Amino acid sequence: MAATIKDIKAETGLGLATISKYLNGGNVRDENRQKIEEAIKKLDYHPNETARSLVTKRTKTVGFIVHNIAINFSGVLLQHASAYLHERGYGMMICDSNLDAKQEAENIRFCLDKQVDGILLMPVSDNPAVLAPTVRAEIPVVLLDREIESDAFDCVTIDNKNAAERATDYLIDNGHNSIAVIHSEEYTGNERFKGFLSSMEKAGVKVPKQYIYSAHVHSTELGYNSMKALLKLRERPTAVVTTNYEVSLGVIMAMNEEGIRCPEDISLIGFDELILPMVMRPKLTLVAQPMEDIATEGARILLKRIEEGNDFPRQRMSLYAALKEGESVRKI
Fold first, then answer.
1. Is the dihedral of CA 283, 286, 290, 291 positive or negative?
2. How far apart are the first and last CA of the chain?
3. Domain 59-158+291-319 shares a fold with domain 160-289
4. Which among 119, 12, 104, 4 is positioned nearest to 59, based on CA atoms?
5. Do 19 and 8 contact (CB within 8 A), yes or no?
6. What is the mean pLDDT of the chain?
7. pLDDT tens digits, 218-266
8. Ramachandran class of 293: left when φ > 0, alpha when ψ lies in -120 to 50, beta otherwise
9. Are 148 and 127 in contact (CB under 8 A)?
10. Per-residue pLDDT at 54 exceeds 70
11. How far apart are CA 151 and CA 155, in angstroms?
12. In what order do the strands lie in the sheet with 179-184?
């Protein structure tokens, strides 16, 4: 039979009020704290979280809804957020929206039904209406990686436009003006495409339509198929900007199949410091998103919102992403 708070009382001789105060995070005298901790260990006591939640109205659980759990970027954010929350006594419930807005809405409803204290969301939909149930339930939401046009939610992203602009500037500074771009048509891809165009416009370079490839979402297939098409052109670009890790994978697969050398034949610059840059030779030049900071800042803001409600302004954090120079860009 599981030990109860009354068993701790019998073991320590302390009052229920003192024991309850300790179990709920309050300060007690050092000698009493030591007695309680020894009793907990001896009795293998575990608090009844269901009963506690009825009193505190908290479940110490955060929902993390990702747009696509299969991509490496999502897994890294999950890992960092989980570690941050665990250190602070919170559990995490993971839901995958599988790039489907309807499934995302169902995941939000599921998290609310499970009475999570807050939600970290990598959104699929850009419609703030999808989050209306969280507003009605007064459950805080922090958006990660992607924005939704609404002042009702905290958000942590990088400055995608600026990051892609700096990456393209780097290619131009190395003598390239025949540059292709492969991007998605969702938030991050569109912002990075804007940065690419801004850089090319500053340099006075017009981008041919055949140098621009896009699809609804980032994917290895997008990178692979786009690079195959680029390699069939009579006038190939001297460099390619890939705006996502999966896209970079597909691009390199296509180049390897066609025997195209990097950077001798085509220079590459990409996003995300994950596995690929560690194994690719030559080493890929890339924009390194601060993935740990995105996850932990989002979790920090969410816990603060859970504890303090709306007593502080909405947080719209745009973190800096560093350009890391590798060996995949040739100077011409």
1. negative
2. 75
3. yes
4. 119
5. yes
6. 92
7. 899 999 999 999 999 999 999 999 999 999 999 999 999 999 999 999 9
8. alpha
9. yes
10. no
11. 10
12. 212-215, 179-184, 239-242, 267-271, 285-288, 322-324
| pTM greater than 0.70 | yes
3-state helix/strand/coil string of the chain: CCCCHHHHHHHHCCCHHHHHHHHCCCCCCHHHHHHHHHHHHHHCCCCCHHHHHHHHCCCCEEEEEECCCCCHHHHHHHHHHHHHHHHCCCEEEEEECCCCHHHHHHHHHHHHHCCCCEEEECCCCCCHHHHHHHHHHCCCEEEECCCCCCCCCEEEEECHHHHHHHHHHHHHHCCCCCEEEEEECCHHHHHHHHHHHHHHHHCCCCCCHHHEEEECCCCHHHHHHHHHHHHCCCCCCCEEEECCHHHHHHHHHHHHHHCCCCCCCCEEEEECCCHHHHHCCCCCEEEECCHHHHHHHHHHHHHHHHHHCCCCCCCEEEECCEEECCCCCCCC
- Domain assignments of the chain as residue spans, ordered by start: 5-47, 59-158+291-319, 160-289
Contact 119, 65 (CB under 8 A): yes
The dihedral built from the CA positions of residue 266, 177, 332 and 321, taken in this order, carries a sign that is negative
**Token couple for 52:** 């506690």
Residue carrying structure tokens 């009844």: 48
Q: What CATH number labels 160-289? A: 3.40.50.2300
Q: Is the pLDDT of residue 269 over 90?
A: yes
**How far, in Å, CA of 295 to CA of 170, rounded?**
28
Question: Letter for the amino acid at 128?
Answer: P
- CATH number of the structural domain 59-158+291-319: 3.40.50.2300
Amino acid identity of residue 131, one-letter, is L
For 64-106, the pLDDT digits (tens) are: 999 999 989 999 999 999 999 999 999 999 999 999 999 999 9
